[in-house]
Specification:
Layout lengths: L4 E8 L9 E6 L4 E6 L7 H17 L4 H16 L11 E7 L2 E7 L3 E6 L1 E4 L6 H7 L5 H6 L21 E6 L5 E5 L1 H4 L4 H10 L3 H14 L6 E8 L3
Antiparallel strand pairs: 1-10, 2-3, 3-4, 4-5, 5-8, 6-7, 6-9, 9-10
The structure holds calcium ion.
The site of calcium ion has 6 residues, from helix 5.
């Protein structure tokens, strides 16, 4: 990764959960950063997210493309969580592979990536039931945030059949001063995009911005595990 790219990462169990089922990979040497959110309601969410993190890390380190690495992780976790298994489990993943200032982003589920530079732009589209309703014009974003089924995923690693898995991808390039935020829904469930944008705009230091984001999510209730990674290209 080029040396004008900085990063900061934090994960917090939150205030209500007894386990942190989120996992992350922070590998600046590889340019690989990812968050994974083990599914609540599934017995072994922490195992699923950790497996996804390890498998994707291993595959990317071995030279595999991001999408292929995610598909490989799904196949493996399905093998352990499939029909009749005593270990039903699932996980989201949102991963970025940096090559200099260019990024390739791939995700499954509702963990998100945003681009920030004063303002905030969401790069990912949640694979959720409520997002489909938003896309069809049946709900607005605020209604989606409050919907009783807001956590219902349409896709997850370890749950979705291999031939039905749709790994979404986006590529782009960070301009000087621009950054990426990867996060699990423990952040976006507590803070809306305006809150997040405000915190990122007011705090120039990545470490302290990461801490402020987690602190605000906890102040807001901390109902879920919170995990986030900030990546930013230095300003000129
Ligand atoms: Ca979560």
């Amino acid at each position: 990764m080029s040396d004008d790219i900085r990063h900061a990462a934090l994960s917090d169990i939150g205030r209500r959960r007894s386990r942190n089922e989120d996992s992350m990979v922070v590998e600046p040497e590889l340019g690989l950063f990812l968050v994974a959110d083990g599914m609540g309601g599934h017995e072994h969410g922490d195992v699923a997210s950790r497996l996804a993190a390890e498998l994707i890390h291993e595959a990317v380190a071995g030279g595999e493309e991001l999408e292929g690495a995610i598909r490989r992780a799904n196949r493996h976790i399905l093998g352990q969580s499939g029909a009749g298994s005593p270990f039903p489990m699932g996980t989201t993943v949102c991963a970025v592979l940096m090559n200099g200032p260019t990024y390739r982003l791939a995700w499954v589920g509702d963990s998100r990536a945003y681009r920030f530079n004063g303002d905030l732009e969401r790069l990912t589209t949640d694979h959720t039931y409520v997002q489909e309703l938003v896309d069809r014009g049946h709900l607005n974003d605020r209604q989606a945030r409050e919907h009783p089924y807001r956590n219902m995923l349409l896709q997850a690693l370890g749950v979705t059949d291999q031939d039905e898995l749709q790994v979404a991808e986006v590529t782009g390039e960070l301009a000087p001063g621009e950054g990426l935020l990867l996060c699990t829904d423990g952040l976006t469930g507590e803070l809306d995009d305006d809150d997040i944008s405000g915190i990122l705009a007011e705090d120039g230091d990545l470490e302290s911005a990461a801490k402020t984001l987690v602190d605000r999510a906890l102040e807001h209730g901390g109902n879920d595990n919170v995990t986030l990674i900030l990546i930013r290209r230095d300003a000129m």
